[in-house]
Amino acid sequence: MSKRGAIQVFVFGLALLIFISAATAFAANLEVAPSNLGQSNHGVSANQLKPSECTQNLTNIVRGAGVINGTTANDLIIGSSGDDTIEGNDGDDCILGGSGDDSLFGGNGADVCFGGSGTDVFYECETEFP
Ligand SMILES: [Ca+2]
Ligand SMILES: [Ca+2]
């Protein structure tokens, strides 16, 4: 191989290496940052969550632990696993005490109360599920 041919091979090889490294760097830049594209959030209404025994139209969800107060609306009230005191207040409420020793106060309206496990006390609940 002539000196000129060797130089041509060297230059071609060098150009090829530059091209490959540039292409690799370009490909590395094409990586897309993680996104939440595959995730979606769906709201759940009180009527979708309520037990079938609660036939009233519920418009509000209240949850908590300890002393829990419903609103004047028709509430789905969800107690905790501990001992809760739940007051439905006005409206036709669906009250779930959950486990624990709960005191369930339906208040005004046609209220459905579920005691759950534990020793539960019911006041002003038109329908009771101990
Ligand atoms: Ca209420
Ligand atoms: Ca409870």
> Which cofactors or ions or other ligands sit in this model?
calcium ion
Radius of gyration: 33 Å
What's the pLDDT, averaged over the residues? 93
* Sheet having the most strands: 5 strands, parallel
Number of strands: 9
Which percent bin holds the helix content?
10-25%
What is the end-to-end distance? 99 Å
Briefly note the structural class of the backbone: alpha/beta
Strand content: 15-25%
Continuous helix count: 2
List the strand order in the largest sheet.
1-3-5-7-9
Tell me briefly what this model is.
The protein is of the alpha/beta class and 130 residues long.
Topology (SSEs and partners):
Elements: H1 3-29, H2 46-49, E1 60-63, E2 67-69, E3 75-78, E4 85-87, E5 94-96, E6 103-105, E7 112-114, E8 121-123, E9 127-129
Parallel strand pairs: 1-3, 2-4, 3-5, 4-6, 5-7, 6-8, 7-9
This protein binds calcium ion (2 copies).
Structure characteristics:
130 residues; binds calcium ion; five-stranded parallel β-sheet; alpha/beta; four-stranded parallel β-sheet; 9 strands; single chain; 2 helices
